[in-house]
Amino acid sequence: MTRNLTFAASLLILLALWAALSALKNDPLLLPSPQTVARILWSEAASGKLTYHLTATIARVTAGFTLAIALGTALALILGRHPRLNAVAEPWVVVMMNLPALVVIVLCYLWIGLTEAAAVTAVTLTKTPMVVVTLREGVRALDPAMDEMARVFRLRPWTRLRHIVLPQLAPWFAACARNGLSVIWKIVLVIEFLGRSNGIGFQIHLYFQLFDIAHVLAYAVTFVVVMLAIDIALIQPWERHANRWRTKAMG
Predict the structure, then answer these.
(1) 130-172 pLDDT per residue, tens
(2) What percent of the chain has pLDDT over 90?
(3) Buried-most residue among 15, 131, 134, 220 (CB within 10 A)?
(4) Is residue 176 a contact partner of residue 69, using CB atoms and an 8 Å limit?
């Protein structure tokens, strides 16, 4: 309860600071007040435009996130268990980690076209190396005694993965999920800004061209609120559960 109250108080302070700066600037065109942005949000929601564009963005985030986690997990399990393969793949991972997301997005659009496939591919390619780096460390930190027990009881590969490996990687998955969402939604907005005809990023691009800061802030705030809700409702409970399991196992 105290944690929730602290979080709510922090948000109220942020809103109060925004309102104070808006009043001090006294220029609605450059820094509209929270009340102005809230009215625009209500209007966009009532017209159905907000739901339409928000749904498109969430779908891209979900698709890219799911593919990156799946592909990154498979690669991390292989590289973490096989040092020679890891030595071969390490330069690839480093290059992809340091390749700017904007370059990946532009190349995907040029090679694949201005399509949904290009958008999701760009998100997946950008996020997968981050998943690999994080989960690879988790694979290296797996308890050898648990592996030995699995061999003694002759567990099947799928059973070993499900009951031995994945539970130990739960805290690392939670870290990937939190960091992944914070990165992926920003990448998706850039993708929509550059080459899609719907989504939050597309709307921000539209109102950027019109120099309509109030609408830009309205759509930006919408997605920030959604990501905060996902973090509070899903990621944080998962993270606490994962760390609790790990603490009990070590005890």
Answers:
(1) 889 888 888 887 777 777 776 777 778 777 777 777 777 777 8
(2) 25
(3) 131
(4) yes
Full domain range(s) for residue 195: 51-250
- CA–CA separation, 90 vs 217, rounded Å? 40
Q: pTM of the prediction?
A: 0.81
Kindly indicate the confidence band of residue 122, based on its pLDDT and cuts at 50, 70 and 90.
very high
The answer on pLDDT for 198 being more than 70 is: yes
How far apart are alpha carbons 130 and 133 in whole angstroms? 5
CATH of the domain at 88: 1.10.3720.10
Classify residue 143: in a domain, yes or no. Answer: yes
Query: CA–CA separation, 146 vs 117, rounded Å?
Result: 40
Comparing CA positions, the residue from 188, 193, 218, 195 lying closest to residue 206 is 193
In angstroms, rounded to a whole number, what is the distance separating the alpha carbons of residues 129 and 234?
A: 23
Nearby residues of 99 by Cβ (< 8 Å), 6 or more positions away: none
